[in-house]
Design goal:
Helix content is 32%, strand content 27%. By secondary structure, the chain is of the alpha+beta class. The strands form five sheets. Strands 15-17-14-18-16-19-20 form a seven-stranded mixed beta sheet. A six-stranded mixed beta sheet has the order 6-7-8-13-9-10.
Length: 417
């Protein structure tokens, strides 16, 4: 027989838990420690019945199997999302101007103005604070660490709900892998417009199918979730936003949390093709949201992750590649470490393309050959070097000081504070 515990937090968020009876005292101690209200509200029984009692009086007695087998299903009419507009001729832009367009936008500027207003410590066990990829906390009293992240790219989901749903899971997976964690599970927060409109319901269905395919392939089961529908203003729905939260686990010695060092090589794990459809660069620099989002090869995601984890002891720092591609991710790594950056190519697609299943890492030059050998056939490309006091993209450069000022002040300036 299993007891049920219900917790009620100060914010009135409710959670229902299923516990073994012998674990009740341990669970109670945890609730008391964190000042959480709780109550035992019932227990499981061997019979196929769902009983609701008030005192000793039975107020409802329902066959439990019928609740699952005969309950109404939410299956509204839906239509597939139309193909996105074809990608137009991409306007000319220099690499540094493109980088400035991203780091000067509210979506991609430094977010310290937001997160520094909140306490990021969790029982003094926070290991990786906001702004450095997935957050990481110690499991107190053990050698284990838990990593947390959340991800979604709404413009991908709007353009192609199936691929966008897959990508939300894949990016959460990569966030955890980049920190050295083994992904465990996900939760979803499904935010959509009015599902009574067939096109909105089509987004919902497509995204769920993509999420389902990804969590199965990446072995990240969904263990909880939330649905928020009818999100509209004046009849216009929000972008489909199926946010994926994910958690991973690692031993403390497996954490990848360093920073690039002067002289480190910039290497990319995974294949770069320069996919610019639905990219952050086109959206921020030109207001263009067109073309297909980058396809998500789940087999490649697994292979690239294995290549990174096989080399974790050689890596000084790592980030997954998503919005903004290589240029934005490498810039953030260098800026956070207070060093410069030089990338060999000036090609816009190679710098800002958002091909999936990729990571950028900082390693010592003498480790490159061993790194490639341990990658198990996954492509590893040396694309530049960290160091100096400038950011060089191909033949164009700017001082890191200038770019850092823009990056760290743009968000507050854009929101008028």
């Amino acid at each position: 027989m299993t007891a049920y515990e219900m917790m009620l937090s100060e914010s009135q968020e409710r959670m229902l838990m299923v516990l073994k009876p012998e674990m009740e005292a341990e669970a109670r101690a945890i609730f008391v420690k964190w000042d959480l209200d709780f109550a035992i509200v019932g227990e499981t029984i061997p019979e196929d019945r769902f009983l609701i009692l008030h005192g000793n009086a039975v107020k409802a007695d329902i066959p439990l199997s019928k609740l699952s087998s005969s309950a109404p299903e939410y299956d509204r009419p839906h239509v597939p999302s139309p193909d996105p507009a074809p990608l137009p001729q991409i306007p000319a832009i220099t690499p540094i101007a493109a980088l400035k367009a991203l780091i000067g936008s509210p979506s991609h500027a430094h977010k310290a103005w937001v997160y520094e207003q909140y306490d990021a410590q969790v029982g003094a066990d926070t290991v990786v604070a906001p702004g450095m990829g997935a957050g990481v906390v110690r499991v107190h009293g053990t050698g284990k660490l838990l990593a947390f992240t959340s991800n979604v790219t709404p413009r991908y989901v709007k353009a192609n709900p199936f691929e966008g749903g897959k990508q939300a899971v894949a990016e959460a997976y990569r966030n955890l892998i980049a920190g050295g964690a083994r992904p465990l599970a996900t939760t979803d927060n499904l935010n959509f417009g009015n599902p009574e409109k067939p096109e909105i319901m089509g987004q919902f269905v497509g995204a769920l199918e993509g999420i389902g395919a990804a969590v199965k392939a990446l072995d990240m089961p969904i263990v909880s979730g939330n649905v928020s529908l009818y999100n509209e203003t004046d009849g216009s729905g929000i972008l489909p936003t199926p946010t994926i939260g994910a958690v991973g686990i690692m031993m403390a010695e497996d954490l990848i949390t360093g920073q690039p060092q002067d002289g480190d090589i910039v290497a990319v794990i995974g294949e770069t093709r320069g996919h610019l459809g639905q990219s952050a660069l086109l959206a921020e620099a030109f207001g263009i949201e067109a073309g297909d989002p980058p396809p998500v090869d789940l087999s490649a995601e697994l292979s690239s992750a294995r290549a990174l984890l096989a080399n974790r002891k050689r890596i000084h720092a790592a980030r997954d590649l998503g919005d903004g591609g290589l240029a934005l991710a490498a810039f953030r790594m260098a800026e956070g470490a207070g060093v410069g950056l030089s990338l060999k190519t000036g090609d816009i697609g190679q710098l800002f393309g958002e091909d999936q299943a990729r990571y950028v890492v900082a390693i010592r030059s003498e480790d490159l050959a061993a790194f490639m050998a341990a990658a198990g056939g996954v492509k590893v490309a040396q694309v530049g070097r960290f160091g100096g006091d400038r950011v060089t993209l191909g033949t164009e450069s700017a001082t890191m000081a200038e770019l850092s000022r823009l990056y760290r002040t743009a968000f507050a300036a854009k929101v008028g504070v």
